[in-house]
Amino acid sequence: MKRHVAVSGVVAVVLSAGLTLVAQTQTQKPYAAPKTADGQPDISGFWSSNTYVPLERPNNVTKEFYTPDEAEAAIKRAAERDAEQTEPGTTADVHYDFTQFGLDRSQSVYSRSLRTSLIVDPPTGKMPPVTAEGQKRAQDRAAARKAAGGQYDRVENMPIGSRCIIMGGSGPPLMNAGYNSNYHIVQSKDSVMILTEMIHDVRIIPLDNRPAPPPSVRQWMGVSRGRWEGNTLVVETTNFNGKNPFRGASENLKVIERFTRDAPDRINYTFTIEDPSTWERPWTAEAPLTRTVGPIFEFACHESNYGVANILAGARADEKRAAEAAAKKTGSN
Amino acid sequence: MRTTLLTAAAVGFALTLANAPARAHHAFAAEFDVNKPLKLTGALVKWEMVNPHSWFHVDVKGPDGKVSTWKIEGGSPNQLIRMGVTKQTVPIGTELIIDAYQAKDGTTKAVGRDFVLPDGKRLFLGGSAANVGVPPAGK
What we know:
CATH class of one domain in chain B: Mainly Beta
Oligomer: heterodimer
Largest interface: A-B, 70 and 71 residues
Number of helices of chain B: 2
Distance between the termini of chain B: 52 Å
Strand content of chain B: 35-45%
Shape of chain A: globular
Number of strands of chain B: 6
Largest sheet of chain B: 5 strands, mixed, barrel
Helix content of chain B: under 10%
CATH class of the largest domain in chain A: Mainly Beta
Number of strands of chain A: 11
Strand content of chain A: 15-25%
Radius of gyration of chain A: 22 Å
Helix content of chain A: 25-40%
CATH superfamily of the largest domain in chain A: Calycin beta-barrel core domain
Number of domains of chain A: 3
CATH architecture of one domain in chain B: Beta Barrel
Structural class of chain B: mainly beta
Largest sheet of chain A: 11 strands, antiparallel
CATH superfamily of one domain in chain B: Nucleic acid-binding proteins
Structural class of chain A: alpha+beta
Distance between the termini of chain A: 49 Å
């Protein structure tokens, strides 16, 4: 497993550099972000949501922070899991090699943190308990999926990401998408634009205190409204269409994001999830964005998504083979 | 130019869907057949540098001497470009040895697990490109 060793070596270098940065930050005066021409804190540019820190704290971990050695070991384990598919003859191997194609996280920037989970509240590092209504909704959604037939019976049954409608990372909230977890933020006096690389999803966030649209207006990524509170950009998003539920949320989900540039190469990005019909209490995660380099390349997903046709053709071929095998068995009886 | 098509023996395996990378754009095991591993050797004749996945077209000569064009699904061009893998650095005509799994529908399509050049070097840089995308210090 030479590759694993190489990857972990690189990780160690990057991590120790990050810890040095943290140590320096603690002993120096607070970082003041440069200002735009309009006097706003400058959060523009190219950023990545890459991280090895899981959203929820692993079951066997009880503390909020790892030691530097433990954090390094956790990243090494995660990097090794990314390379797991290189075991020939396994289902997981039926893929191009992430470590070769540059799609694994170790080959991009990623936030460096000793945190054991992105979730900082509740203190358990886990999502709060799901309400009875939320549990029933999850059951209803599962029943509806089952009633619709197999996942590859028809294109409408395939996952939303596979159909290039919306992919992980677009948010809100902005989350590590596994690869191409890159964003371009552009600021103006009255609005902020966040371009997500994956499927080039865009949010244009007005800052002029206009109200959210009526509840009848529903969008895949919701409708966002922003404001500056001191050096922090606060963005509240409502009006989701509920077809891409974040962690089982309802369409009444409200996401409150906070962007604070607290280092030259870092935006301290946090988000709070409010959905009383799904979780017993709001919950908050800290998922810093790390500065990366541009440009963001086009990700025109649907036009060349040959995978949909190939998957459906493969499923029909599987069915044909199964039918032929069944007929053969019947004939031989 | 000697090209070969080798069909490897099907390998016994346990279904380990839980280990499949959850972040993949789609489930590759639904599109390609784990029981049909291939080793394809041939020259690149076309590279569809498209998202969500690249398609490398390679002319492969079968055991009967007949040449067929295989379409090999590979990584998102966005990351490949960042790593310096472009149509200039991997020109048409490049000889490739590809470990692959054939499409379930039995056509000449496959997913390319590994791409290796005739001299044994991997086509893509892998872990050595770990600092791609890291901005310069300061600012």
